[in-house]
Amino acid sequence: MTLLPDFRLETYFSRWEFTARHHLTASDAQTMTMAELLAMADDADRTAWDTLSLGYTETFGDPALRQAIAEMYTYAEADDVICFAGAEEGLYLAMHALLGPDDHAVVITPNYQAAETVPLALCPVTGVALDPERDWALDLDAVAAAIRPTTRVVSVNFPNNPTGKVIDAADFARLARMCDDRGIHLFSDEVYRGLELDPSRRLPQAADLSERALSLNVTSKALGLPGLRIGWITCRDRELRSRLERAKHYTTICNSAPSEILARIALKARDRILDRNRAIIAGNLPAFESFFAEFDDLFDWQAPDGGCVAYPRYRGRDGVERFCTELVEETGVLLLPASIYRSVLTDSPADRFRIGIGRRDPEPALDAFATWLRARR
Fold first, then answer.
1. Is the dihedral angle over the CA atoms 126, 131, 135, 140 positive or is it negative?
2. pTM
3. 342 and 117 in contact (C-beta within 8 Å)?
4. 377: pLDDT confidence band, cut at 50, 70 and 90?
């Protein structure tokens, strides 16, 4: 296994995720029970669930699941899909399939840590930072300037984790053309796609824009089903897809058979699930707006364009790291401080924290948070 640094987010979560009273930094939308999901199954999938044999499954993924995934795309077919045990396995294996020591990658920051550290363990990497002073804008000229003759991958994530930024569709298409013109693979993390506050801003999927592009997605985030551990990459480059399969032989080999059927049910019902999750986010936003309005001397708040996380600025003199530590220790309210998203490639804002807005009933956590802040004044 390639030597990698500690995964800061997971290390932090191993201490607090299941012990903090209020998980106010969750990155996934509201989940559902097994009964709720099974109630969405059609007759064929319910029969498949009831008669499931718990043997090995196909490395590429269940054919019916791959077909359900392919139907989310305009140009991809089921053969263009390979499934993984979550998005992280897909990201990890894709970088190993695409990059070697003589190659180069460009990564947008801030981002999920593995998007930076996995390629960094394989080759030189250049970071291009979203600009927090311009609504987290992406400078495409800066991306072009970062590209070298050896660049093999440009890695992006929209809606972005942790900022919630969604760039313009025209800019995303320009980015895909830029990569195609240079023979570069665009690796697009699309795990929050479907949770845009304004659905008209939903970006096309990279795999529909380019035969070389890779679209990464998962049941965990927008659908709120992380317990299934089913992710996938869609890519119309069949030779690359074959390399991903051979890489998977060294990790999970195949996916969980029960999870594949449950994922199939969820994807067929995805419009209903996404409608529900967007409604939860929209219903939560007034509570967050009211909270941050009361404490506008301490925070700069902006709702995300998409996804279910936001990245407000903390303006207190004690600094965001101490602030988040004392908050969780004294009240049990869990946030993620800026150090979790620190980049070694670009300058990173040191005054931000991630807050989750996709779970039902955030009021108890916000009330505990507000009570603590009022006592400190």
1. negative
2. 0.97
3. no
4. confident
